[in-house]
């Protein structure tokens, strides 16, 4: 799992999942797991950058060797990050390229954000704005240095640890929003108090207890609950046989039980609630079993959890149906927040309507001007067609007079060569 690879890098546990054993090339099924890892997503906004940095680092034998012998103190002190200076040149070149790509992506996001808020992005200092991103060094935007690795590790550690808390907060708001919708539509939130499924919810065995694991052993594995064996159970549910139970493998332990309660074909069953229930169960088991907080459960951790007092507890699991995820004060604050947002939306709607009315009036004025212009052009065209050219002869009328200019005398030659002056005729009558 990619989650595991991230956390192993962040916390440097003793067993490194991406370390290369001597006989790795002899294992045919190893490359088949890579496409599954590519599909995983940490949920971080810099997930791709984190993923690619880890993939590049794990190709360097020196860094991988130091990682295998490192501990949490090496991470906190920055000693592991300093090992970056000893990796191959082609590794550093690739890391530099990855950082420049990430900086370019962040600049694009900042520009889009500033444009959406009608801010003159060209006048903003993008270098100073990059300081709000904690997973890289904004002062050096061209090369990947030891400080970048240190910042990436510390930021990812903090963000991934806060993932569950943020998820709980999102679901809380989702539940409070459902309450508001129900109140406004005068409906009631659906409960299972009068159904068969509600009985299942009330009788949930405690997550991670021997009773719950025996149910999985019997119903999913088809084995006799009296013959329950923790070590065999672990190996049966280690689906990819990597020696640990990751988050998805743990969540699979609760799937069949949840499917008894939530039916996706039933529109009254909230699938968001089912997923929250599944994640709460996984989180509970992780908190109690995952001792080194690397988000995976090793066989040793699993066996140690079976020795605890809580493992044999018959306490029932408190479901979302019996546990309210928000307080009355939180609901009141949420209602006030919704009212403020509604008022803001109303103000914006009023302003938009006013702008629309102004634009409509401007459109009418422009349309009137366009028609006036077209009419003027049409009249001008008619006038031009009715006028005669300036060099055209005037039309003849009844009182018009003809004027002839006297012609100059012409000389003609006769046969004997004597020139004779021929005068033009004089006093010819003028005909009207």
**Binned strand content:** under 5%
Please tell me what the overall shape is. flat
Name the CATH class of the largest domain: Mainly Alpha
- How far apart, in Å, are the first and last alpha carbons? 117 Å
Low-confidence stretches: 1-5, 10-39, 190-203
- For the record, what is the CATH homologous superfamily label of the largest domain? EF-hand
Class from helix and strand fractions: mainly alpha
What is the residue-mean pLDDT, rounded to a whole number? 76
The CATH topology of the largest domain is what?
Recoverin, domain 1
Q: How would you characterize the largest beta sheet?
A: 2 strands, antiparallel
- The value of Rg in angstroms is 44 Å
| SS summary, helix count | 17
- Trace the largest sheet across and list its strands: 1-2
Q: Per CATH, which architecture of the largest domain?
A: Orthogonal Bundle
Please give the share of residues in helix.
55-70%
What is the string of helix and strand elements?
HHHHHHHHHHHHHEHHEHHEE
Q: Give the beta-strand count.
A: 4
Q: What is the count of structural domains?
A: 3
